[in-house]
Specification:
Blueprint (H helix, E strand, L loop, with lengths): L31 H5 L7 E3 L2 H10 L3 E6 L4 H11 L2 H10 L1 E6 L4 H13 L8 E5 L5 E5 L13 H14 L1 H18 L13 H12 L18 H14 L2 H16 L13 E2 L7 E2 L2 E2 H18 L2 H17 L8 E4 L2 E2 L2 E2 L7 H8 L3 H8 L24 H18 L7 E6 H17 L3 H17 L8 E5 L2 E5 L2 H18 L2 H17 L33 H16 L2 H15 L10 H11 L2 E6 L5 H11 L6 E6 L22 E6 L2 E2 L6 H7 L11
Parallel strand pairs: 1-3, 2-3, 15-16
Antiparallel strand pairs: 2-4, 4-5, 6-7, 8-9, 9-12, 10-11, 12-13, 13-14, 15-17, 17-18
Helix pairs in contact: 4-6, 5-7, 8-9, 9-10, 9-11, 9-22, 11-12, 11-16, 13-14, 16-17, 16-18, 17-18, 18-19, 18-20, 19-20, 20-21, 20-22, 23-24
Amino acid sequence: MTAEPPGASLPSANQPSANQPSANRLGRETSPYLLQHKDNPVHWMPWGPEAFARARAENKPVLLSVGYAACHWCHVMAHESFENPAIAGLMNELFVNIKVDREERPDVDQIYQSALALLGQQGGWPLTMFLTPEAEPFWGGTYFPPAPRYGRAGFPDVLRGVAGTYAEEPDKVTRNVSALKDALNGMAENRAAGTAETIGAGVLDEIAARLLREVDPVHGGIGSAPKFPQVPLFELLWRAWQRSGKAPFREAVVTTLANMAQGGIYDHLGGGFARYSVDERWLAPHFEKMLYDNAMLLDLLTLVWQETRDPLFETRIRETAGWVLREMVAEGGGFAATLDADSEGEEGRFYVWSEAEIDRLLGSEAGFFKQVYDVTAHGNWEGTNILNRLGRLDLAGAEAEAKLAASRDTLLRARARRVRPGWDDKVLADWNGLMIAALTHAGMALNEPDWIAAAGRAYAFVRDRMQDGNHRLHHSWRGGQTRTPGMLDDYAGMARAALALHEATGDPAALDQARAWAAVLDAHFWDQGKGGYFFTADDAEGLIVRTKSAFDNATPNGNGTMLAVLATLFHRTGEDRYRERAEALAAAFSGELNRNFFPLPTFLNAVERLHAPLQIVIVGPPGAAETEALRRTVLERSLPNRILTLLPPGADLPAGHPAQGKGMRDGRATAYVCAGMTCSAPVTTPADLAVALPSAHPTQDRP
């Protein structure tokens, strides 16, 4: 289906009509993004029944604008159009205007992004959709300039055209609404559901080989510009390397991470990664930093470092974890959502440098620093310099790195005096789940208990402040207020985080909480007819469609995440109900492989965890030196399907566990490595355990 362009135009309108309410309604919201727009001359209303009732009463179409606080082009459109009294007057006269924070309402954003894609247009933010008073989409786009530019129509012309079509060509609107609603409902249906057993290691390797063809062999990443991290996809390639031993899979992942770690997408002074690069080299980002990107990259960097021991990757892990704990901890210990791209009205101003600034601040050390970090008089981005080390994909010697670290510290202290980008400190349950798990995994691998403790505090915040007595989560928290009932990704992400903390600490309450969140999903989200979890609960706000998908977006898909959670719960508890639900979930979406496997990496990685878990049991006194030595041997290895259990002497495993009944050998802490229902012989030394663990390259590279 393609978009039909706006039709007839209406007269210009620079002032609101006499019967238009004068108040912008966003001042009582908690979202920093909505509050950014509370002083616009646009008569914004938050999403809700009041806005649509007004649209019906006034027989006006709805202009839905969706964005987020760190979004650069959202700021551009706000400055150009929403702060312009003439354009705002036109919006107020012709439409009921609704502003949505996509981070606060991913359920709303997901529906209308899908509608825009069905119109044949590229999605993104700001999202600008035009709806009937029944919330049905009929046309839309993303950013519109205030006058014709970049091959795009000017926003005032769009407003007049859409309003004219709505008023004068209702049949055209009805046709678009009907086609879009049918297509949206079709997207929520499982298509060609298969069986989980059809997705074996051979199928996964074939998919990885096909995806490998899309990887840039020089700079890494998928395709050309713009480039996004695509972390679950590169985890899929890493898993393929570990299964097959085929070096190209490994090189694709290592090359991608090294270029990102040395590129301008990485903040070389403060740590942390920007959302994406506008060029193929990872040099120039849109400078916003998202919690979820950094969580996923921490996880992948940890997984790859566990095998390569690359000092560059360890450095970036430590710096990024440091940035999170220094700059992204919100009130109460939860993790904040984003840092803005803009400051003082300019994109990237906080992060870029002139050569003169570097010379003044670093003095005699400036020459060496400029050579390493690509600093020149003319700059490498819009006349300024984005610090990067793309000239080499490893670190220099110890003496050189010490000098560079001192220079970076000088620049970081100077940068701290600049006007900082905006900080969106709302706490999102799903994104916190990603960061809690990532810090826990990294903390275990690099033996950093402070990271695990910080993850535990964030977990406790979500558990204690963002759920009710029935284990029902809220999606968002800010300023003491929760907003929006929890969605699939919230429960799945936090259950995964609880299981990570259970593995790290042995706390049985974390396992119990993961089970409770899984029970909520089964009771309120499961599709009893066709399987799979809906994105929203059966008692949530009724939107025009109840979506269900296994496709990843900017964050991992909740159905894929939940498949891994259910697999872990089964292997930890031995309860068949988790295996049965996991297999039903895998079967519900396995048929999607025949249509499009590119958006399915989280789901596919979880299928492998379900069918090929690596269960490692260490029986020994908790905290004893021998027990800890065996545990460190496991934690330092790259084992993405690892399920590690520490068992005190005298305790036993669930019925059906392959190591059930096994204990200490000769009074010493003892480890068992189990693949399927077969366990290794008992081992009592770290060296023997290392041999028993799977090799990182099980076979030679084969054709």
